[in-house]
């Protein structure tokens, strides 16, 4: 097992390794004297791992209740959120009790937002079961639900008490869901770490899972320590996301988050080359790695369609949107871009 300590408004550990889920209850008991725990999951994950989580928590002396919602981004909604917090209230969870988020990014975001707001905040543990959640969304304290106007528009910064990443859970992921997570892994290489990027370029889908997840978490840990509330350096983690969220919205979430981020990354990289911000070599290298992992690099939506979606992006500030633009592998610039120039930039990368 590898352990990455995170220093933030609440300090915690990210534990990464094989066979960790059966020890969830013991790990939780070390953190709290809580009597009750609510395990939040979704319909794809619960049949696989719900029983293991329940057995572990019960064995450590917790009374458990479970809330399982339909899998998919559509459940990350105000309606499901209200059902969840009402469930917590009906089951009389107190501020000294505990929430377990068992699943991917949708589960972590929804359960984390409930933890942040129910009774003005109770402890929660992230148990990511997808690669995307393991390397990105479970770490750093961003929690949210979607609104009809856009993705993640209602949320809170609220750090977990522990992240328990059992890499064995990745073995049951469908190939396309695992590939989704690879888009976020590649993102970390482009942003910060040429050595990580090279490992991915040479190993492809056969990369060292434990080592790569640990490295991504370390990189995110460092960013969160510098900028927990996303006002500066942490904005770089949105590489590919402004356009990607627009693609998700245009597809009514038929295109998954990881695929949308991959397309968004390809678009901004191509546009950066057209604008002379990055070299053709950098552009070709980034696109080569996305292709190696079988990730999409284009979409059928127009620059105007994606521009309209960008206007609802939560990273917009007044008349500007902070685009994250690759200059070279290992460094991306934060570019405050006037809204009037977004459409032409996107068009350059299509």
Would you kindly provide a written description of the structure presented here, covering whatever features stand out?
The structure is a single chain. 45% of the residues lie in helices and 21% in strands. With 350 residues, it is of the alpha/beta class. The chain has 2 domains: 2-172, Rossmann fold, CATH 3.40.50; 175-349, Dehydroquinate synthase-like - alpha domain (Dehydroquinate synthase-like, alpha domain, Up-down Bundle), CATH 1.20.1090. The strands form 3 sheets. A 7-stranded mixed sheet has the order 1-2-9-6-5-3-4, with helices on both faces. Helix 6 (175-192) runs parallel beside helix 10 (257-274) and helix 12 crosses helix 13 (339-349). It starts with a strand and ends with a helix.
- What letter string, H or E per element, gives the SSE order? EEHEHEHEHEHEEEHHHHHHHEEEH
Q: What is the C-level CATH assignment of the largest domain?
A: Mainly Alpha
Report the span from N to C terminus: 42 Å
The domain tally reads: 2
Mean pLDDT: 95
Query: What does the overall shape look like?
Result: globular
- Cα gyration radius (Å): 20 Å
CATH architecture of the largest domain: Up-down Bundle
Helix content: 40-55%
Structural class: alpha/beta
């Amino acid at each position: 097992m590898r352990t990455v300590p995170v220093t933030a408004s609440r300090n915690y550990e990210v534990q990464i390794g094989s066979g960790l889920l059966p020890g969830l209850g013991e790990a939780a008991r070390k953190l709290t004297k809580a009597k009750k725990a609510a395990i939040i999951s979704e319909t794809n994950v619960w049949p696989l791992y719900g029983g293991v989580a329940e057995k572990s928590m019960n064995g450590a002396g917790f009374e458990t209740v479970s809330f399982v919602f339909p899998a998919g981004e559509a459940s990350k909604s105000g309606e499901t959120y209200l059902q969840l917090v009402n469930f917590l209230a009906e089951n009389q969870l107190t501020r000294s009790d505990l929430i377990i988020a068992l699943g991917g990014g949708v589960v972590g975001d929804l359960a984390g937002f409930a933890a942040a707001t129910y009774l003005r905040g109770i402890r929660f543990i992230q148990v990511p079961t997808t690669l995307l959640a393991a390397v990105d969304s479970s770490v750093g304290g961003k929690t949210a639900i979607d609104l009809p106007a856009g993705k993640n528009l209602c949320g809170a910064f609220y750090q977990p008490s522990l992240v328990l990443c059992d890499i064995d859970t990745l073995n049951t992921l469908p190939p396309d869901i695992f590939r989704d997570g690879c888009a976020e892994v590649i993102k970390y290489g482009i942003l910060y770490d040429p050595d990580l990027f090279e490992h991915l370029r040479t190993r492809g889908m056969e990369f060292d899972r434990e080592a790569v997840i640990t490295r991504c978490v370390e990189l995110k840990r460092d960013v969160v320590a510098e900028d927990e509330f996303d006002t500066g350096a942490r904005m770089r983690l949105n590489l590919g996301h402004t356009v990607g969220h627009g693609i998700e919205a245009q597809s009514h979430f038929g295109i998954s988050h990881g695929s949308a981020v991959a397309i968004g990354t390809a678009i901004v990289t191509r546009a950066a080359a057209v604008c002379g911000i990055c070299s053709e070599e950098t552009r070709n290298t980034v696109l080569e790695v996305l292709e190696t992992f079988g990730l999409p690099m284009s979409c059928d939506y127009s620059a105007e369609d994606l521009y309209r979606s960008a206007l609802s992006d939560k990273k917009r500030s007044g008349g500007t949107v902070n685009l994250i633009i690759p200059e070279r592998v290992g460094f991306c610039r934060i570019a405050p871009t006037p809204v009037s120039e977004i459409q032409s930039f996107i068009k350059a990368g299509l």
